[in-house]
Structures are given as C-alpha cells and as structure tokens.
Task: structure prediction
Amino acid sequence: MRIFFLLLFALAIGLNAAKKKPNLPPVQDPSDQLFRMAPMTKSSRSLVVNLSNDLHLAYDTQNMRTHSVWRGKGLDLYGPCYHGGKRPFICQTNGDRLWGNPPVNLWMLDGDTSTRAHYTGFSTLNNRICLLYDLSKAGRRTKVRQTLFSANDAVVRSYLLRSPSPSRSNNSMPGFIGGISHKAHIEMGEPVELNIPNVAAIQRAKDILVCILKGKGNLQSKLDVIKYSEEQFTEEGSTAGNKFVKSESKMAQIIYSTLSLPHSINKPLQFELITLSAPDKATAIRMARNWKQPQTATKSTQPHVQPANPKARRSFVLDPHYRIEALALPEINLFATGMDWLSKDQLAICTYTGEVWIVENATGPVKEMKYRRFARGMNEPMGLLVKDGKIHLGNKAELTRLTDTDNDGQADLFERVCNDWDYTGSYNSFSYGPVLDLKGNFVLTNAGHAGHWGARHMGWALRIAPESDKAVPFSSGFREPNGIGTYGPNRDIFVADNQGAWIGACKLNHVQQGGFYGHPTSRPASKAEYSGRETLDPPAIWFPYKWVRSASGMIEITDERFGPFKGQLLVGDFQNAVITRVQMEKIDGQWQGAVWPFLKGFQSGVNRMVMGTDGSLYVGGGKVKAWAANAPAFHSLERVSFKGKVPFEVSSVKALADGFELSFTKPVDKESAKAIDGFDVWQYKYKFHKTYGSPEFDHEGKKDSFTVIDLKGTSVSKDGLKVTLRLDNWKTGYVTAVRGLDIRSKSGAKLWHDTFYYTLNRIPKK
Result:
C-alpha cells in the first residue's frame, strides 16, 4: 500500500511538472543582422539596432526614445518560431545596460510641452539605421532623420531637422521654429560640471555618463522630478493583461537646446549627440576633450542569394489529376506566412522568423530557381501583399511597406503604414493579412483569443484607407483568423477562423460591417455587450472536423488551366497538410455552400497559397512544435499543376426549395444516379459555447449525433451532367452532408471524392 501511494505521489509531481512552462533556451540573432523589430518586455514596439558585434541599442518607436543601450551578445529571442515552445515571443537584452531613457516626452518645439513625435519608419541605406519621424505642434510638422551608429566606443545619434512647411490654411509665409529642446538623457544621478563647451555629464552609481554636442546649440544638465507610467508585457499577457508600472523619482537630465535661432525652411538644422561612459571625472574630461569621429566609410551589403538545392526533398504524391512538385529549397527556413507575386516570375514570401525572400524564375524549371533574401528582422509577419510594386507586410505590431530605393535587390526603406491596434505578450497575438478590398483599402484581422478586454481591436477586422494611418474596426469575434482572402468580382472579404473556445469548428466567414463571429474578447465594444450573447453571424462554410483541424490560407481559382473548378475557393488546413475545395452561392444576401477534400500529401502544414501566371498553384507551408502538422518537413514550397485529366466529381451544388441540384464534371450513369439508396444524407450542427470546440448535435439537440434526412427522389438532366435530390425534413442552420457511394460516371468511373458538406443558412423560395 505504501508503494502504491508513493507511486501516486510521484505521478502527481510529474503531472505538475508537465504543467510548468519549459525552461527553453533563447535563440540569438545572427551577428551580421543590422536590426530586429522586437517586442521587448518594456517596449512592445521596439527597433533593436546592432551598432557593432557587442554594442546594441533598442529604440521605442511608440514613445520615440532610446530605452536600452547595452553591451553583450544582443537579443535573446523566445517564441515558437525559434524553438517550438508555447511561450510568449518576448525579446530580452543579453548583456550589461549602459543607458536608456524612460517613456517621457523628449522633444519640445518653441517650449511647447504638447509637442508630439510620430514615427513613420526607418532606412538602412549604407548599412546604417536612420529613424524617420515627425515632430508636430499646433498643426505644423518638422521632419526628423535620426541616424544611429557607433564610433570610438561611443553611441552617436545624428539628427537632421527640416522646418515646418507653410500653413496652407491662411496662405502665410513659411513657418519658423523659434527653438528646439531635446532631452538627450534621463538617468538616476547628479549633474556633473566638466567645464567643457557643449559637454554635459551625469554622475551615476558606478560611472559618469558623458554627452557631447556637435553642432549649433548648447547642452545643459539639471536635476528634476520625472513621473511616468511604463507598460510591461507579461508571460500571462493573453489572460491577465499587461502591467503598468508607475515611477516618480529625481533624475538628472541632459537637455540639448538651440539658442532660439529661427530656422527657415531652406536651412535645416543638423547636430550630433555622442554618448560614452567613464569611471571617474578625470577620465570623463579626458575622453570628452579627445573624442573625435573617425573618417570611416559606410559599406553597403550585397543581397544574400542561394541557388536551388538539388538534394532537397522530392514530392512522392501520386495523384491521377494533379501533379505536386516540391521546389528545391536551399538550406533556409522558409516557413511561409505570406505569399504574393512581385512580377510574373518573382514570388515574394515572408516567413515566421521575420524574413522576406524572393524566388527568382519561380515559374520555370526547379533547377533554375534562385532564392534572394529581400529583408530580415521583421516581427512575425503573417501576411504579404504586393501593391503598386511594393511589398506590404502584416507584422505583429504594424503594417509595413518595404522599398528597395537603390535597386540593389534588397529592402532599405521600411515605412510604417499603420499600427493603430494593440497586441499582447501572447505567442498567438498575430495580425493576419493584409488583403485589398474593392475600394483599395487594406484589410487585416487580429487574433482574439490572445487578447484581453484592455487591448484595442484584438479579434477585429480592420480597414485602413490608402494614405491613412488610422485603422477602422468593422467586424469582430475572430479567434485565430489564419486565413484571409477576397472572393468574387466585388472582392468580398472572407476569413477562415480556427476552432477553439467559442468556435465550434473551423469555419469560413463572410466578413461584413457590424458582423460578430463568435469570440467575445473583441474591443472596443464593452465586455457587457457580449455577456450572455447567444447569437452570432453564421459562417458561409463549416469545415468538418475530420478534414480540417487548423484552417489556413485561401485563394480563388482564376485560371482555367488549373482544372474544371474556376471561380471556386481553395482553403488550406495546416494540421492535416491538406487543401479543401469550397464552392459558394448567395441566397437572400447570405453566402453558403459546399466543401470537398481536394489534395493531400503536402510536405508540411499548408499555410499560404497563390495562383501563378503559369496556371499553377504555389503552396507554402511549415510546422513547429506549437503549430503541429501531420507532415514530415519543417518548411516547404510546392507547385501544383493540372495534368489535364478531368476527374469525375461533383463540381458544384445549388440549393433548391426542396433539395439540391448537383452538377458533375462528366455525365453520370443515369441508373446509378436515380437510385435513392445510392445516396446518404444527414444533418448536424455545432454549438456556440465557451468550451474548446464542439461535438455534433442533431435536430433534437442530442450530443454526438446527427439526423438522417429522407431522400424522396432523384432526377437526372438530359445531358447527364446534373442530378437533383429532393429532400424531406431538412432544416436551416445545419450542415448537410451528402455521400454518393454508388454513383458512377457514364464510363463507369467512381467519384474522385464521394462526400461533400453543405452549410445551409437559407433555403430558396419556390
């Protein structure tokens, strides 16, 4: 008996240990990587700059401040895309902190404390980071270019400011800046007088921080009370929310200020702030007097290009109708999270780890393909769109436009289009898209189950107008909308959401203004609005659980060369590594339709798809431990082409007042089609509840059951291409499954896929 209890105790310890988050090792960015768009614990929208191999700077693009400078190895990266574990993607510094600023307003124009800084992007020309932002006051803006680099063991911040443009409202003369002040440093300590012009210092606990001004103006040090509130990501970000830490303390400041000299629009202001540290005052004086900027030429880098790998994994899928060809990937991590065409034979792909690759000659022979890295250091992008010849990425924290301004084959301008939403420290806090609607607006969707009630626009679809930096939320209730696309001539927006809490099974939603699709943590609506809510906008398609466990990307078939299904949708499934086929119709303004299996056997989880100019389908995938897939490879890129042999298949389904009209790709054998017992028809529905997923329920509400639908009769068209099924006792709000095991083509062939599932939202009137 004692042994029995000891075993139970050991088992309990083991189970508790299993519940703990694994102590996963961090991953380091490559030493030659210039930057990383990083979610830091105390700055969720940071740009980390590698000034040298051991000197690093993290810039807070939300509050426009240098929040961390340190010496060491750089960033510790966590998250599923690096080591598979289900833990938040939060980057941490690895080394000794040198200095940084708290989240307070660092700029003033004309002494106005209401001056605001607005970040617009950054440039990497000449292999240096140049931050781009505006200073605004009273409706006027001043453009700032702030270049960051290291020289002679110091951090250099070089500024170029242009005066505001003339006011167009009153036709006045060009505006002027009467004076500029900028808090170069805010540190705990006491001001130290070094008696050197344009040099200021702060005595800290272990050293003296020294700042040197090069350019017009002066530096001054003072002791002041600083108050601020700082947001911190937490490991429980998706459930507990982020922490806000308030601080109030006396801190010494080094303030740069002009001599109140007016600057006309034709005379931009330039200056540099050089920061270094010294162990004592004597050393600080010597270093400040002797510091000189070396005359070193900046270098531009060449794009990283790799040829196709002749030893790459081949495809062994043998399908009678479609050829699946594995493209020979080089030794790169190409877990595809977004795909679009940059030109007719250049395929742009973004990856889970934040890289963008261009596949050259993508429509040609495999051995002639080349892979060119266009960018890296992005923040877990989940979508890529080419608009006006430029790549747009749906990063985790912003929509970013990438441009190659010097035509060297790699991006050097990264413009923030919009970041008007919140996100949490959860590893599943993603933004999916963008896609373009009919009016040319960007549309993206945010994951909802990774959010909390204090986070704006999580679980919402957002519309961003061209040339706007504001996101307009227009529908809500999304959990993990990994698939987003457009369909039809009106470019209707569809989103494939993943099953889980409040989402009974994977589904395809037609996204409309004011729609609610199930998951209740959406903002900005109040929490009370969703309390006890029992209704939701029905999906166009419910995917059967046995086929689709993790719905992903979608694409409309627009080319007749891809077989007999032009005008229909293909929707991927990540977990089962398959593609389904979806055909929809609109009844009383409501989309609904049928889903079939289509293709299986892909090398990794199917995540993104795009139709090529060659009439082929390009499929990108991947898998990690947190995103499991029933497939062997961790990443893949495959090309699917139609062999020319039309399968015998139900090509489309039309709902009638009393049943279905089935259209076939080939004439049916009329005798087999007329046999009532040759078809099985049943209905079921999923429950809208808090529980993860849902079993099937029949008409009476019985769990794990379905209702058999009576088939009253069948009829066949004269040409044998259509079969009508007359049904009894069927209901709307249910999935109708139809299986035709015994039906044959006129030549005796079996159906390629014998079962389809039709989501019945409306029954047409007679």
